Amino acid sequence: MSASALEYKDSGMLSREQLLHLFDRFAFLTSQLDVKKRIADAVNDKQEAVAVTTAIQEEIFGDMGVDPRFGIACLGKVSTAYENDQDLMIHFYGFLAKEEMACEEAELGPEKFAERLHMQEKLQEQQLEMLKYMRNFHLDDQSTILDMLHQQIEKANFDSEASVLSVEQIQDIVRRKVSPVFRSR
Questions:
Q1: pLDDT (0 to 100) of residue 81
Q2: DSSP string covering 82-144, please?
Q3: Model confidence pLDDT, tens digit, residues 73-86
Q4: Domain spans of the chain, in order of start
Q5: 28 close to 34: Cβ distance less than 8 angstroms
Q6: 51 in helix, strand or coil?
Q7: Distance in angstroms (rounded) separating the CA atoms of residues 72 and 66
Q8: Which of 29, 33, 66, 120 could, after both became Cys, cross-link 61 (CB 3.0–4.6 A)?
Q9: Is-contact 173 165, C-beta < 8 A?
C-alpha cells in the first residue's frame, strides 16, 4: 500500500485514485459476458443482484490491497468527502448508474432490458426536443413551463413518462400565463 493510500485509510477514506480505479474496473467487469451471467444466475437463484455487484466491488478492493469492508464503507461517504470534486462526483454517479444498470439487466433479462433502454432513449430524445422548443420562449416563460413540468412529474409520482410536455401543452401554458382566466370570487 502506498503512503498516500495509508494516509487515506488512516483518515477513514479512500483516495481519489483508488476510487477512480474502482469505478473503471467495475465498469469494465460488469460489461463482460461472464460477469453479466454471474449476476443473472444469482437473480435466477433468488438472490439480490446488488449482493453480487457488492461482492464484485469487494473483490476489486481485495485486488487493490484494500480491506473490502473498509472500501464498501468508504463508498457510502464519497458524496460528502468529495463533494467539491466535480469530476470525481461525475465518475461516482456514473459508477452508481452502471451498478443499477447491471442489476436491472440481470433482473429483466437481455430482451426486456434492451427494450427498456430503447424506451429510455426515445424519452430522452423527446425531452431534448422539448428543451430545444422551450428555448424559443422568454426566460420567464421557460421558468413557468418548467414549474408546470415539475408539478406534472410530482402528480405522476415521478414517473419518467411525465417528464415531457408536448408542443401544444407548452403553448397552452404560455398562453394561459399571458392571458390568465379571471375567476369570480
A1: 94
A2: TTT-HHHHHHHHHHHHHHHHHHHHHHH-HHHHHHHHHHHHHHHHHHHHHHHHHTTS-HHHHHH
A3: 999 999 999 999 99
A4: 1-108, 109-185
A5: no
A6: helix
A7: 10
A8: 66
A9: yes
